[in-house]
Amino acid sequence: MADTPTAPSIEALTAVADRACEPPTGPSRAKQLRWITGELRTALERGTLPPTAARSLEALLAPDTLAAYLTAAEQGLLRRKPTARPEHPSPASMRVRENCLRILGSEAGLPLTLPERHRPAVALRETVAARPRSILLGHLEHTTRPGQDDARTRILAIIATVLDTGCRAGELCALRTHDVDLHRGTIRLTRLPQHRDPRTPPTVETVTLSATTRAALRHWLTARRRLTLRDGAEPPGPGNETTDALWVSIAPSGHPRPGLPLHVRGLARAYARAVHDLNTDMAGQPGWHPLPQRMEPLRRTTQPQPTDPAVLRRTGDRHPVRPVTERRPPARQR
Which SS3 state, helix, strand or coil, does residue 298 take? Predict the structure, then answer.
């Protein structure tokens, strides 16, 4: 039996998707773009789109066609495999669909109008309470010193950096040693857009570090210099280290040596292990409640204060953002 001819609109969409998947588009986004293209083909074949959508790319990306497509996706009508809860789509997958449609529309040079959809409220995890956080800050100030084990040195530097900057795990992993300026007491962050237009460029910010964080980073950089040393017979330096990543492994599983860059999953595992040990050490402190083993609740307890005037002009803020937490000890005032 001969293959069913492909509709002209799908042929045009496939060509647009092929162009959109070219570098610098990453492999994950390219896979998503091809997934959306396949879903639109399936929706057209199953009759969930208006018949006119087969005629041209303009008709396929028309507002009424996209509304029908997103409704069918929400109802689970485009799935190729059965699921336990087809009537409960993932909010993340719906955001991916909308983002990919915007990319395809932009690549095709067509204006895109997406329908207004009901967005379920996102339940945020409870943040770290004020009392445990103040105890943690005091603990950081008294334990950021040389001589402790490398894992504890690293986790204290990570927690202090998160409290000062409010950066996410991906932004932490993107840090390099040249982003830290201990002489000026600042750190340069590349803020990644979250749940926005996927073509929104990242924003670079310079954030002032507290005295505690500077001390924690100074001790971690000392330990990191030893962990990343490539040739022990040569003096340490940029040309004699395994990586320029700020956060590196202590004792990597399955690798003969430490000093490898930490990625998001590795950072999450290292954070969870170290926080477990820290909770054990702090269990006897009055008012202490265990820290969550995920970084996000800790990150959301603070808002960073950019110090780079270019950042303030770019974001339109007249004044730096003030922390939303309680008053902190003088050592951590920014």
Answer: helix
Closest C-alpha among 252, 289, 292 to residue 276: 292
CA dist., res. 251 & res. 274, Å (int) = 13
Tell me how far apart the alpha carbons of residues 9 and 275 are, in angstroms, rounded to a whole number.
Answer: 53
The answer to whether 328 and 137 have CB atoms below 8 angstroms apart is yes
Closest by alpha carbon to 209, among 190, 228, 235, 181? Answer: 181
d(CA 127, CA 301): 6
Contact at 8 Å (CB) between 260 and 242? Answer: yes
Helical spans, DSSP H, in the chain: 8-20, 27-45, 57-60, 63-74, 91-108, 130-143, 150-165, 169-173, 211-227, 264-281, 296-299, 309-315
52-70 burial by CB neighbour count: b if 16+ within 10 A, else e?
A: ebbeebebbbbeebbbbbb
268, amino acid identity: A
Structure tokens at 66: 């996209």
Give whole-number Cα distances, 166 to 92, 126, 189, 321, 326, in Å. 23, 16, 10, 12, 15
- Token couple for 188: 């340069």
The predicted pLDDT at position 299 comes to: 72
Whole-number Å distance between alpha carbons of 217 and 184? 13
d(CA 315, CA 169): 22
**DSSP secondary structure, 249-269, as one string:** -SS-TT-SSS-PBP-HHHHHH
Measured distance CA(182)–CA(213) in Å, rounded: 10
Closest C-alpha to 168, from 191, 186, 152: 191
262: nearest Cα among 281, 243, 276: 243
**pLDDT average per 10 residues of sequence, the chain (334 residues):** 71 94 86 93 91 93 93 83 58 87 92 76 51 58 60 85 86 92 93 62 87 88 88 73 90 69 86 80 73 74 51 35 34 39
For strand 186-191 and strand 180-181, is the pairing parallel, antiparallel, or unpaired? antiparallel
